[in-house]
Amino acid sequence: ERPRPPSSLASGRRHPRPAMALRLAAMRRFAGIGDGMKKLGEGAKGFSFATFFEEKHFWKTANVGPFFLALFFTPTLYRSFKDAYWTRQLRKLNTEEIISDRYEWLKLNMLKDEVEAELLKQVPEGGVKPLELGPALPP
C-alpha cells in the first residue's frame, strides 16, 4: 500500500476547500483592477500636451515632478545606455581578436613544425659536422 501525504483525507482525496479559498482570495484581491485601468484610460484620453505645458497650468496645478525628473536624468541615462552598449560591443570585438590571434599563432607554429620536420629529414647520417674556419694550431 502506498503511503498517503499528510494533507490527504482518509478516503485518499484532497480536501477542496484550500483551493477554493485561494481562488476566492485572488478574486477579492484583483477585483478592483478593472476599475483602476478604466480610470487610467480616461485620464490618458483627457490628457493634452497643450494644456499641460500652458504656463499657468504647468506651474500652478500640473504634476511636474515626473517631467523634471525625466529632464534631469535623461543625460545620465543616455550616457549609461551608451556606455553599456559600447562595452558590450568592444568585449565582443576583443573576444574575436583573441580568437583570431590564437588561430594565427597556431598557423605559424604549424608551418614552423613542418619546416623543422622537413629539415630533419635532410640531415646526413653522422649529423652536421662543425664548421672549421682554420686549423686548430698555427703552422
What does this structure look like?
The protein has 5 helices and no strands. It is elongated, with a radius of gyration of 41 Å. It has helices at 17-29, 33-45, 49-52, 55-60, 65-121. By secondary structure, the protein is mostly helical. Helix content is 67%, strand content 0%.
- What is the N-to-C succession of helices and strands? HHHHH
Number of strands: 0
Shape: elongated
Please report the distance between the alpha carbons of the first and last residues.
112 Å
Q: Spans with pLDDT under 50 lasting ≥5 residues?
A: none
The percentage of residues in β strands lies in: under 5%
Radius of gyration: 41 Å
Average pLDDT works out at: 81
Largest sheet: none
Helix residue percentage: 55-70%
Which structural class matches the secondary elements?
mainly alpha
How many helices? The count is 5
Give short descriptive properties of this protein.
elongated, mainly alpha, 139 residues
Helices and strands in order:
Blueprint: H1 17-29, H2 33-45, H3 49-52, H4 55-60, H5 65-121
Can you summarize this structure?
67% of the residues lie in helices and 0% in strands. It is an all-alpha fold and 139 residues long.
